[in-house]
């Protein structure tokens, strides 16, 4: 499929967009260490949720938070790549753009940890009693 072919219509266009999006997912999963770390942590969190038999609503919250981390990490990577494309020189604006994008992931992860504590602490304490 040629990315310059703008004449695709209907299902073909949808399938092409889907294929390009999957290429993006494969790209970050294979090349980005941070994304690989997020995947390992997400797998561990979901395994723990299974062991502790968390209620369905808690599973939904966990999946929302995990999806948010994945999506933000991908947007951060996209910002990094675009900045690298714009300049290979040191530029204060390039630094601000990259650091703000990384800060967005950090902020979200911070709140994800708090949500994790709220969801996991009570069943863990119950188990230890
Ligand atoms: N072109 C640039 N101009 C100014 N500062 C930059 C530039 N590129 C990166 N930086 C800054 O240098 C630091 C390290 O960036 P570096 O490029 O090593 O990692 P990254 O691009 O943020 O992530 P990755 O390692 O995943 O590519 C960050 O604070 C970043 O903002």
Automatic annotation (TrEMBL):
Subcellular compartments: Cell membrane
Residue numbers binding substrate: 13, 73
Cofactors (names): Mg(2+)
Note accompanying the cofactor annotation: Mn(2+), Zn(2+), Cd(2+) and Co(2+) support activity to lesser extents.
Catalytic residues in the record: 73
Single annotated GO MF: kinase activity
Membrane topology: Multi-pass membrane protein
A Pfam family assignment: DAGK_prokar
Transmembrane segments: 36-52, 59-79, 99-121
Protein name: Diacylglycerol kinase
Organism in which the protein naturally occurs: Halalkalibacter oceani
Lineage, opening ranks: Bacteria, Bacillati, Bacillota, Bacilli, Bacillales
């Amino acid at each position: 499929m040629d990315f310059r072919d703008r004449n695709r219509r209907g299902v073909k266009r949808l399938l092409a967009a889907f294929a390009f999006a999957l290429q993006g997912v494969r790209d970050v999963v294979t090349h980005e260490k941070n994304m690989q770390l997020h995947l390992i942590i997400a797998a561990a969190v979901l395994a723990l949720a299974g062991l502790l038999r968390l209620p369905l609503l808690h599973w939904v919250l966990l999946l929302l938070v995990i999806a948010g981390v994945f999506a933000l990490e991908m947007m951060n990577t996209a910002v990094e790549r675009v900045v690298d494309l714009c300049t290979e020189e040191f530029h204060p604006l390039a630094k601000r753009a990259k650091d703000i994008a990384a800060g967005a992931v950090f902020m979200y992860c911070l709140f994800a940890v708090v949500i994790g504590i709220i969801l996991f602490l009570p069943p863990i304490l119950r188990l230890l009693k």
